[in-house]
Amino acid sequence: MALASAVALSATAVVFGAPAAQASHPGTTDGLLSASNGTNTIRFNNGSTLRLSSGDPTITTVNGAAWAPDGSRAIFATENGEIATLRHNDGANYWWVSPPSPEEGPVEYRSPVYRSEGIGVLFAAKEAGSPWRIEAQVASGGFLPRQVTPADGKHYSNPDSGPGSTFVYQSQGGGADAPSGTSQVGVFDGSSFTTIADDASNPSISPNGKKVAFVRGGQIYVANIDGTGVVAVTSNAATHDHPTFSPTGTTVAFAQGTGVATALADGSQAANPVPVAGLAGIPSYQPRRTDTVARLAGQDRFTTANAVSQAHWATASDQNDPRQFADAVVLSRSDLFADALGGAALAAAKQGPLLMTPPTGLNAVTETEIRRILPVGRTVYLLGSPGAISTTVENQVKALGYQVERLAGQDRFSTSVAIANEINPNPTYVLAATGLNFPDALAAGAAAGSFNVPGSGQSAVVVLTSDYTLSTGTKNYLDRVAGNGSRVVGIGLQGAQATAPYNPIEIFGSSRYETSLFTAWAFFGGTNHAGLATGVDWPDALSGGALMATINGPLLLTRGNESALSFEPELFLDEHSGSLDTALMFGSAAVLSAGQQAPAGTWISGPGGHTFVQNPTNIGIVDIDRGTSSARSATAVDSSGVRTPEQIEAAVAGLKERLEQR
């Protein structure tokens, strides 16, 4: 619907490509107000300065800096029309977000903002001979943006993101290279584009998504998200631009003349906005959200697996339990990893935890957890033949009132194929990793499982190679599914070389830690959670990987017996900190040292810091601060949260280039 003009003002022709109003993220306090003005600095209203010190002569200015939801990173446009992000406390810690320009000609990118949960970013893009458009992509770890505005010949620019998939934008007519005429402000509500304000530009959406601020005739106005209830926020003689809401939504900051000022969003300070000393340029509030490091651990592998289960899965008899209700349990033997390596992907597909038991008899604490989360009559999946999990265990589970389905083959390789067929006989992706060791397959399990959560529209499985060769059963399986269109991905050098005849996407590094980094980078461009497990043993990573698959996060391997966090997970946590709000540590301090807790928290957090919790019971369910489900959050505009083969390959190539530059 069009906004009925409440105030008669002259039409305003707006130049596209100028920096947009900056995204407003929710918070209980308004944090610090910052401003960038095309120099190499971001200044704050407490007198501090963040100075870009890239050492790269092609990036010397910060234009339109906007903050991630936790304030950990600022995203901005460079003088060359590229998009980069900068760490909140390190002017040299920057990296690129915009993709390289294609061979057919350069692309100019402007007006970047983080999406509501930091997982995606929006920005305006334009090539010569084409109108401005708004694109969306994941915030880190890869390129390949998607156009999200209509290809109707209009110019679309200056996006600002609200809750979920909602965003506001500016549109304008004119020729392909030269926008002209009166501009409008519109809103995308997740399904449709609607103009809500004529003769308006540079919109900003409130943190709760109920209000929009915009510029008209050099003044700032606020309206309801449907365009009704227009209120003048400024009415003084100065020229105003670039409005942005504070995290609480009560205040609007904006450029006023050559400086920055604020006024209450209800219009009560319209005649006398409050100048902000020391700031000039485009304002943006830096949130002060506190992030979390959570350790999930017990006294042994059984109680650790239970702690992981209790972190996410509800008590079946308590209908008021806010956690997710399990539909199944995956049960693996506790003494050997071989048959269990495909279990994380299965657990996510069947919507339940992965628990462990000795081969000869059902572990008592495991039995208690099965009975807590799973209603009688549901299915418990046993991984492996009776030689792996005995018929005694099978009969004990049946005696509890559960259905039992055993997934087994003649060896670990054919067992992995049986698990894969149970997930989906024709999966979107087949991740192949060596079955003669555990690290690569554990990282692959979390990645594959993230496709299997209901609603993703895709599926993925893990099958095992015999190092650099394929067993007959695995080869027959790959022949069939590759012929039906499944894309093969080789995880680790062995997995990549063993599957060479299937032209796999190759994902491997120089060590198990680097391979887990590449796997995380390839499949998780944006996520609220990242898991950390020791790379020198497998049980905690096995149960932890099943949880990470369910809540759509990577499993990163670290040298657990060292006092410092390994470089590989540190790099992932740093560069994905704009979306990350929780780092999960699997296992006790005896296997994953206490000295790695603080670094993990530092790298995911902004100036609000982090808290540490032991064995929480609300992981991946509801984010209390934002009141939204954080399991499988939206990537850009759609809700799939999963990547295409082209995006996977682009992410791998980008990480290789980055590591070569170190």
From TrEMBL:
The cross-references to Pfam families, in alphabetical order and at most eight, read: CW_binding_2, PD40
List the keywords (alphabetical): Signal
Tell me where on the tree of life, at the top rank, the source sits: Bacteria
Annotated signal sequence is 1-23
What InterPro entries is this protein classified in? 6-blade_b-propeller_TolB-like (IPR011042), Bact_Sporulation_Assoc (IPR051922), Cell_wall-bd_2 (IPR007253), WD40 (IPR011659)
* Name of this chain's protein: Cell wall-binding repeat-containing protein
Q: Which organism is it from?
A: Plantactinospora endophytica
